[in-house]
Specification:
Elements (H helix, E strand, L loop, with lengths): L4 E6 L6 H11 L5 E7 L5 E3 L2 E3 L3 E2 L8 E4 L5 H5 L2 H11 L4 E5 L2 H7 L7 E2 L15 E2 L4 E4 L2 E4 L4 H14 L1 H10 L18 H26 L5
Parallel strand pairs: 1-2, 1-6, 2-5, 6-7, 7-11, 8-9
Antiparallel strand pairs: 3-4, 10-11
Keywords: Lyase
Enzyme class: lyase
GO molecular function, one term: lyase activity
Amino acid sequence: MASTIHIVIPIYPGVTQLDFTGPHQFFSRVPQTEVVVASVGGLPVEAQGLTFTNLADLDVIEACDVLCVPGGLGCLDAAEDARFLHAIQRLASTSRYLTSVCTGSLILGAAGLLRGRRAACHWAWRDMLPLFGAIPDAGRVVRDGNLITGGGVTAGIDLALTVIAELLGDETAQAAQLTLEYAPEPPFDAGRPDTAPASVHAHVLDGMADMQASRYRQAERIATHLPA
């Protein structure tokens, strides 16, 4: 690998900001890396009331060593953007490691990059992965060859540390972890459906039901047009 490790994070309207700002924080803290956040046309991207500007133009980036695709409620809309999806396919063909966070794996799936491969996703969207020929995996960070995917939102930091260790060794990853004091001790053990109280799980599912049904139909439509 070249002395500089080029990491590209493509973002889009409706991205979950922590899906990419978490990994970005860690990737940008280690030596030898150049981290580029890009959008179609370099246009500003709004995410939960935050606006990200001065973005690179995704269309003109020729190659990368690591492609890290974040998720978000806009992920399926992004997957239906031919210009965005073409850039994902093109950069994936050049990358040494293909990675995603949360529902970013659905974008990789829509790009035809997950057929027959194990992948992680946010728990509420994981059942959409088979539509794209992927094998759902409930792991927090899942590796299948050069494909490394993370589960929901906060798994992006674990994914970043996994990728850093792969590229630069365990000690470099551990140094980044220590520098940023990544030592999570959540006040509740409610971050997964199998550990959350049943009443909380039911409440969250009820609140998501209509949206999930609509998103599943959208994913089915996208899957009918998968690249050959």
